[in-house]
């Protein structure tokens, strides 16, 4: 039996990918942006439901993913004599994302390289002289 991702990758990498997977859905990203924009108070499920036009069950599943991945933290608040589950961005998740992206940017030399253009030019000339595409036509 093969090793799992938890055994062969550093925990930092696994945690980072879990956060990215959690926010890699349009509804969840929209929820993150809505919660992040409201810095004065926590956002309740009811308020998110009004902003995101999904069924209650679907929205709850998305919020569960964000909470379990560590992007959101939750607490119970009382509004209008009713208890509501509210959401707030977990700053540690944002710090982790910025640290990892900072490492990538620091270690990446972003420059234009003329060799890429040469390779592309070679490929197009090679393709023209061999008529490579004709072999894949049915």
TrEMBL record:
Pfam families: HTH_5. Residues 8-112 form the HTH arsR-type domain. Coiled coil: none annotated. PROSITE patterns: HTH_ARSR_2. Gene3D superfamilies: Winged helix-like DNA-binding domain superfamily/Winged helix DNA-binding domain. The keyword Transcription regulation applies. The keyword Kinase does not apply. GO terms for molecular function: DNA binding; DNA-binding transcription factor activity. Keywords: DNA-binding, Transcription, Transcription regulation. This is Helix-turn-helix transcriptional regulator. It comes from Taishania pollutisoli.
